[in-house]
């Protein structure tokens, strides 16, 4: 007791500044212990589809070679059949991860951190007969489209999904870089879509896009909440079905191109052209105005209604 009393007296006899420093050192020591104890729990937090997608985003884009795209298309075909070989994807610079979302097991194929070249983020679910495929080719540029597609896919009603992981366009050393996955003919998105047409001919392929109402050239375009098209000058059953369903589920005007609106038809969309060449008639180009995107991002009930319309699409 005597030694303890002496230590107390010595501590109290120190200047206030020194006492504060001593208390601070003790507090930092306890904080370090608490952080060390909590680190394993934080590290063990399970990954989600959204967290993996966010972690896979970058800025740089490098076009793949024709040989690489041929290999990727073959691997995508196997993935649609439920066969994902980790070693084969690793040879292309990708890693394979499996996770559970809302009771369903998902397989994610994404670029390894040290080999990111903007080639995209891909997810596959257990094959469902006729289940559509989602695409967000401007996931980083058309606000909320990427996250909306992630949340829709996690609901378990879609067979596969593809997301861009680089900005649609940017400058690098004063040079314009084109990373537009809806229009480049030499992309992983094209390889993924070709594999989808061969492997799942009965499944619709639905692309989510975003538009600004104030930039529209027509009154109909400025008032639209959504514009649905088949990226051609005639509607298809898949596009008509989605437009009809969304029109009954939302108050915002949902217009069908080219019958109700004459712009944003997606006529130059490379994925649509690729699928048509392969005899696939299930492509749907879905443009969403910002207010509707904001609603779908924050409102789970609205997103549920939206997802139901998309999940029912058939070629």
The stretches of 5 or more residues where confidence is low (pLDDT under 50) are 6-12, 16-25, 27-43
Total number of helical segments? 12
Cα(first) to Cα(last) distance is 86 Å
Count the E strands. Answer: 11
Order of helices and strands: HHHHHEEEEHEEEHEHEHEHEHH
CATH topology of the largest domain: Aminopeptidase
Largest sheet: 9 strands, mixed
The best one-word shape is globular
Would you give an account of this structure?
This protein has 315 residues and is an alpha/beta fold. The chain has two domains: 2-43; 49-311, 3-Layer(aba) Sandwich (Aminopeptidase). 43% of the residues lie in helices and 18% in strands. It contains twelve helices and eleven strands. It has helices at 2-12, 16-43, 49-55, 66-80, 86-91, 145-154, 188-199, 219-223, 237-249, 270-277, 290-298, 300-311; strands at 94-101, 104-111, 121-124, 133-136, 160-163, 169-172, 175-178, 205-211, 226-229, 254-256, 283-289. The strands form two sheets. The chain has a nine-stranded mixed β-sheet, with helices on both faces. Strands 6-7 form a two-stranded antiparallel ribbon. Helix 9 (237-249) runs antiparallel to helix 12. The longest helix has 28 residues, at 16-43. The N and C termini lie far apart (86 Å).
């Amino acid at each position: 007791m005597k030694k303890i009393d002496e230590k107390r007296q010595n501590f109290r006899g120190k200047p206030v500044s020194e006492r504060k420093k001593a208390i601070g050192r003790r507090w930092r020591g306890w904080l370090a212990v608490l952080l060390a104890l909590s680190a394993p729990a934080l590290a063990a937090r399970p990954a989600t589809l959204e967290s993996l997608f966010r972690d896979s985003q970058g800025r740089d884009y490098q076009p793949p070679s024709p040989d690489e795209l041929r290999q990727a298309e073959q691997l995508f075909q196997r993935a649609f059949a439920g066969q994902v070989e980790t070693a084969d994807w690793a040879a292309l610079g990708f890693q394979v991860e499996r996770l559970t979302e809302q009771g369903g097991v998902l397989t994610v194929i994404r670029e390894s951190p040290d080999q990111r070249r903007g080639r995209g983020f891909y997810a596959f679910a257990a094959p469902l007969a006729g289940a559509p495929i989602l695409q967000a080719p401007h996931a980083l540029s058309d606000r909320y489209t990427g996250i909306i597609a992630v949340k829709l896919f996690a609901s378990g009603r879609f067979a596969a999904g593809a997301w861009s992981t680089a900005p649609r366009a940017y400058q690098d050393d004063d040079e314009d870089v084109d990373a537009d996955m809806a229009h480049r003919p030499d992309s992983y998105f094209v390889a993924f879509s070709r594999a989808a047409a061969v492997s799942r001919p009965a499944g619709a392929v639905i692309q989510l896009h975003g538009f600004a109402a104030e930039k529209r050239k027509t009154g109909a375009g400025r008032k639209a909440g959504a514009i649905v098209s088949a990226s051609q000058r005639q509607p298809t059953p898949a596009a008509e079905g989605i437009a009809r369903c969304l029109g009954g589920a939302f108050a915002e005007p949902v217009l069908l191109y080219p019958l109700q609106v004459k712009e944003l038809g997606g006529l130059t969309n490379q994925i649509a052209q690729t699928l048509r060449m392969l005899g696939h008639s299930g492509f749907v180009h879905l443009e969403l105005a910002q207010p509707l995107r904001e609603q779908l991002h924050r409102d789970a009930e609205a997103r549920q209604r939206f997802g139901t319309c998309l999940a029912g699409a058939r070629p």
